[in-house]
Write a structure and sequence with these properties.
heterodimer; A: 160 residues; alpha+beta; Ubiquitin-like (UB roll); DNA polymerase, domain 1; 2 domains; B: 334 residues; Aldehyde Oxidoreductase, domain 4; four-stranded mixed β-sheet; 25% strand; elongated; binds FE2/S2 (inorganic) cluster; 2Fe-2S (chain A)
């Protein structure tokens, strides 16, 4: 099959690959580029584990064809820490024990980041709404909700 | 037609581990040349935090800080044997094996230190900070770093230990059927409050209050995390999850996350967790198995609460609106 070129920025650095036409962004990121932070839970858009941020919007990378991302700016959880310092959401997930097996965690963090980017001080209901496309088997969700609220508080204190 | 409230209680005993062909786990511990300690296991951490707990247990037994211990669970082909991470057995079985291995390693470590300090090994103690001191004369001491260097490069000793923990298989007595399938039981009690819509059959769990007796909580925050997740999972089993909705008929069985129902973050009951610590006799530092057991008592508690609310006894899981409506219909017909 003919390969197609794709070019985008991933967590701020330029990436260019030749991929099979029809390759999902999830598979391109994990298998071609080696960023395994987006997880493949269902490959059909129902679990949220593969969530990434494309041009500021939350997207399911399992339902996104890589070749439609030409020129896009893509953010994944592996790009959040800066110089070894964890992003406030990552810090909050650790501090509130919001991760067990961790399989849902990168998708949860992506969903939470988009929420906080648009709504820095969300209500609990807004957090629940933002996470409702993401499945977690282990935590019972409450610690994750608390992590997002904790990160929001930390952000607003830093801004103040 | 109305929304009806009910409250249900359930209590469980839950065995730690299992009784099939005997229930063993082995562990190996050895020091690196710089005095860190490796724990080698085939037991797998599925996210419960087993690696952290094994590091704590090893560190406590040898007398070093937890961050001096690395736990390797990499390969079931090459590691010391473990039956697996299930039946709430990981902490109890692997923890006991790690204690035995760490004790043996500690003994060698103290012997090497004794040679360096020219004292008896039995006169030595650890300070938990990475040093070995002479009891009563703490100015006479040596770091574990230096002990490990000496063992490796001077004295030719391996600071290591082997651990094995086995609960042997228990067979029933021929006459009475009596047996001892487990040596260690955790306990839990749950009170659940529900609302049942007797027109739609829908159940909402309002509150769930759990008390768990889990021996010693070796890492209290991780125990709490496990119990909160388990309590949610119990409710999920009670009301939502099945791959065989019309068992044994396979029709309508879910094949993916689209069709396999699990509650999401919007469906949470108000949850309370209380931990009672009663150290177990044969557990590592008094621990029992909290893992699987914590998702059990919610199920009968919810079933009892549904009975309390609308007077029908649902004895097939999950307790779906359809089952409730069929039972209400049968009740009205009688
Ligand atoms: S893997 Fe994309 S939503 Fe599940
Ligand atoms: S932490 Fe395991 S799925 Fe969420």
């Amino acid at each position: 099959m003919a390969k197609v070129p794709v070019q985008f920025t991933l967590n701020g650095s330029e990436k260019a690959e030749f991929i099979d036409s029809g390759t999902t962004l999830l598979n391109a990121l994990r298998d071609k580029i080696g960023d395994t932070s987006p997880k493949g839970g269902c490959h059909q858009g129902t679990c949220g584990a593969c969530s990434v941020i494309i041009d500021g919007e939350l997207r399911l990378s399992c339902l996104t064809l890589a070749e439609t991302c030409n020129g896009a700016a893509i953010t994944t959880t592996s790009g959040l820490a800066e110089g070894g310092v964890l992003h406030p959401l990552q810090r909050a997930f650790l501090d509130t024990f919001a991760t067990q097996c961790g399989f849902c965690t990168p998708g949860m963090i992506m969903a939470a980041k988009v929420l906080l980017d648009h709504t820095p001080n969300p209500s609990r209901d807004e957090v629940v709404e933002a996470l409702s496309g993401n499945i977690c088997r282990c935590t019972g969700y409450e610690p994750i909700i608390q992590a997002v609220l904790t990160a929001a508080r930390a952000n607003s204190q830093n801004a103040a | 037609m109305a929304i009806r409230r009910g409250r249900g209680v359930a209590a469980i005993n839950y065995p730690t581990g299992m009784n099939l062909g005997g229930d063993p786990t082995q562990a190996l511990v050895h020091s690196t040349p710089t005095g860190n300690f490796m724990v080698t296991l085939s037991s797998v951490d599925l996210g419960q935090g087993m690696k952290q707990i094994m590091a704590q247990i090893c560190a406590e037994t040898i007398g070093v800080p937890t961050d001096r211990v690395v736990v390797d669970t990499a390969d079931t082909d090459t590691g010391p044997h473990c039956m697996g991470t299930f039946a709430s057995r990981g902490t109890h079985r692997a923890g006991n094996a790690v204690i035995q291995a760490a004790r043996e390693a500690r003994q060698v470590m103290l012997e090497v230190a004794a040679e360096e300090l020219e004292v008896n090994a039995s006169d030595l103690e650890t300070d938990g900070q990475g040093n070995i001191l002479v009891k009563g004369a703490p100015q006479k001491s040596i770091s574990i770093f230096d002990v490990a260097l000496s063992a490796h490069f001077k004295r030719g000793r391996s600071i290591s230990g082997r651990g094995m923990f086995l609960i042997p298989r228990s067979y029933p007595e021929k006459e009475t059927g009596a047996m001892k399938p487990s040596t260690c039981y955790a306990h839990a009690c749950t009170v659940a409050e529900v609302e049942v819509d007797d027109e739609t059959g829908e159940v909402t769990v309002l509150t769930v209050k759990n008390v768990f007796e889990i021996g010693r909580a070796l890492n209290p925050k991780m125990v709490e995390q496990q119990l909160v997740g388990g309590s949610w999972m119990g409710i999920s089993h009670a009301l939502y999850e099945t791959t065989e909705p019309y068992y044994p008929n396979r029709d309508h069985g879910g094949t993916d996350f689209n069709q396999y129902l699990m509650p999401g973050p919007g469906d949470l009951a108000q949850t309370e967790i209380i931990v009672l610590e009663r150290p177990s006799a044969d557990g590592p530092y008094g621990a029992k198995g909290p893992g699987e057991m914590c998702a059990n008592p919610q199920i009968p508690a919810v079933a009892n609460a549904v009975f309390d609310a609308v007077g029908v006894r649902i004895d097939t899981l999950p307790i779906t609106p359809e089952r409730i409506l069929r039972a209400l219909k049968a009740q009205a017909a009688n």
